[in-house]
Amino acid sequence: MKIILSLTVLFLLAISPCMAQKPSGNSSSQSGVEPEIRKLTRSWDEAMVKRDINFLDSLLADDYIISGLAKQRYLDLIKSSEIKYTSFEREIISLRIYGDTALVFGQANVNGQSSPIGWFSSTFSFMDVWVKQQGRWRSVATKAEEIVQTYQKQKIVKFGPEVKASLVIVFKSDVSDEQVEDFRRNVLQVTTSNEGGRRYLSGIRQYLRAPRIQNHNTVAITFHEDITQGQRDEIMKRIKPSSLVYKVFENVAPAEVNLDQ
What we know:
Number of domains: 2
Oligomer: single chain
Strand content: 35-45%
Number of helices: 7
Shape: globular
Strand order of the largest sheet: 2-1-6-5-4-3
Number of strands: 12
CATH class of the largest domain: Alpha Beta
Order of helices and strands: HHHHEEHEEEEEHEEEEHE
Structural class: alpha+beta
Radius of gyration: 20 Å
Distance between the termini: 34 Å
């Protein structure tokens, strides 16, 4: 459990103070920075899933820090972690450029599997600090905070196999883990940028890979409390026609689902 709590894993940490600079007045020289940073962020996400330590080493500055954790320790933890990410996706909400420094703000959706506790899912806000060093952009610091009190009046979001979900989607018995991930990306998410950024459909608050039910892969979805009927209809319209889906249950905890009923 301590592995999950420390960054949903390795990522939910704090940043060193940011450098204050005036925004550059040369807009033409900055025109290519935003797509480059977006592309690097997407590549970073992919490297987390692949555990591509060599790429991460080149992407992060030598003095990169996450809270009090130095770069090498961070890389060692990723390499040796018992956690396997099936997806690590950050949606960039705001990108600000100050000369040779860029600040990236956004929201991340992380899914994976941990040998101690099984499947996990997390959504958290983040900020990355990038600095252009020797002609190329490298990240020097990261701050991320797990979102546990995100919606109306800071209510705590409870989620898990024992907690009632808005939808429990049970897939056909021959559907693989890879097909479930394709379903998540292509049915429950939409593309937000040319660089491959993605976000969940409007109205979806949380997504969870639940334990298998009678040898069927299963996922659970929780809606925002203020989801509109139009948003709900759009989600259902995308889910029900899928050839991968066996059954869909509403307003039930995954642990309570019985396929024989």
